[in-house]
Design goal:
Length: 426
């Protein structure tokens, strides 16, 4: 059992929420792939994994949470895909598609107005449960996309945002990507405003926000964490000890906290590298502690809720480069399950990863994320990867994403979804 570390402000938020209520990436576009002949639905591909998830974007092509009338098509498609679980994105860039006092809830207010006073998330929960589907709230945790004025940043100030080893805040990066001269050598894998998990107040505010979500929507089955890491920098560096690469987390408040807790001087790559291994481990621990804090808050808000996370499929690289020790999170039962995002066009690499995941002690709690959007013009590839996951005995799979499948009639047909009708479009 986890030891609760909730502060008094969180308890206040939960108390307020309970009084009122007595009342889970957007990937880059896939490369141009030669189209193939239509593929028949894989209805007899063998026994499916125990669970099949489907990621549903809040700002994708379908925007199901903008209008409650779009919910029935999602449910029909999910059932046709054999889904058991929906990962519905409700928090992105500090904006909320749910009733919130801590995030920017303008998207939710607009959706309710567009739906004639009906809350689309509540409607989705009702219809999904009636169809036997579990619903996980998918939240982007530490990435705020391009929203420099997100409520969390407004409340906590610039110190909440990551700073690199040269003392440059991501808020000041041109177009939110690496400035010159470093841009000649480095890129952020996902440009944007990234929060510092070690900065004062960040973990508490995030835990409060997601606890509020669970208090106000107690029918949710799970909370699904995404972007629960430091940003990836291309090319990857295995930590700060070699003094190469672009290193994040050097805000003055964060460095001061490290030095106060350890009695050591924080390194400053590329020249001052003393205690680099300890520094890397400490920053990695900050992400783990954030997972634990969110999980503790979630259990207090909604006992029994399933906590999961979308994670990097290359676990060693995730551990060394982005502070994401997701195997530890499973070992210590901080998560109910993890979903490594094995997004690749190369089915041999996919098989290598799927076999490795299934063979580990964490295999029964490791689902495999399939990049279905990559195969919009070559649906056979998505079918093949699902068959591989089934053959190795994966505990579950998750398809990214419903929006991509709904956009591609050939992909949808190959995966067993019947063509949309005029009634579906109304």
């Amino acid at each position: 059992m986890r030891t609760s570390r909730l502060n008094s402000s969180l308890l206040g938020v939960l108390g307020l929420g309970l009084g009122l209520l007595a009342c889970a990436c957007t990937p880059e576009a896939p490369p141009d792939i030669a189209a193939e002949a239509p593929v028949e639905p894989a209805e007899s591909a063998g026994p499916a994994p125990a669970r099949r998830g489907l990621w549903v974007l809040c700002q994708g092509s379908q925007r199901v949470l903008d209008d409650a009338t779009r919910v029935p098509r999602l449910i029909d498609d999910a059932l046709a895909l054999g889904a058991s679980d929906l990962f519905v994105q409700v928090y992105r860039a500090g904006r909320a598609w749910f009733d919130s006092s801590l995030a920017d809830a303008e998207p939710w207010r607009s959706a309710v107005a567009n739906s004639g006073g009906v809350d689309p998330l509540a409607e989705l929960l009702t219809r999904a449960h009636a169809a036997g589907l579990r619903v996980h709230a998918w939240v982007n945790v530490l990435n705020l996309a391009d929203n420099k004025r997100a409520p969390l940043v407004e409340a906590l100030g610039r110190d909440a945002v990551l700073v690199d080893q040269a003392g440059r805040s991501l808020l000041d990066y041109p177009k939110l990507d690496v400035p010159q001269p470093d841009r000649r050598y480095y890129r952020l894998g996902t440009p944007g405003v990234w929060l510092d998990p070690a900065a004062p107040g960040v973990a508490a505010r995030l835990a409060e926000t997601f606890a509020e979500l669970l208090v106000r929507y107690p029918a949710l089955d799970g909370l699904h964490l995404d972007y629960i890491r430091y940003p990836g920098v291309l090319p990857f560096a295995p930590g700060s000890r070699f003094g190469v690469g672009l290193d994040m987390g050097h805000g003055e408040a964060t460095r001061a906290r490290f030095e106060a807790e350890t009695g050591l001087e924080a390194p400053r790559p590329p020249d001052r590298l003393g205690h680099a291994n300890r520094w890397d481990a400490w920053r990695r621990d900050q992400v783990t502690q954030l997972v634990q804090r969110v999980g503790d808050a979630a259990q207090l808000a909604r006992p029994g809720v399933a906590l999961s996370a979308a994670v990097w499929a290359h676990a060693d690289r995730a551990y060394l480069s982005i502070g994401q020790d997701w195997r530890r999170w499973l070992d210590e039962s901080l998560l109910e399950f993890a979903v490594p995002m094995a997004y690749t066009l190369d089915s041999r690499i996919f098989r290598y990863q799927a076999e490795a995941f299934a063979a580990t002690p964490q295999g029964p709690r490791t689902w495999i994320g399939v990049g279905a959007w990559l195969f919009a013009r070559r649906p056979a590839g998505a079918v093949e990867q699902l068959e591989i996951a089934e053959a190795v005995g994966a505990a579950g799979v998750a398809l990214f994403s419903w929006d991509a499948i709904a956009d591609s009639p050939e992909l949808a047909r190959a995966l067993g979804v019947p063509p949309a009708t005029d009634a579906d479009a109304d």
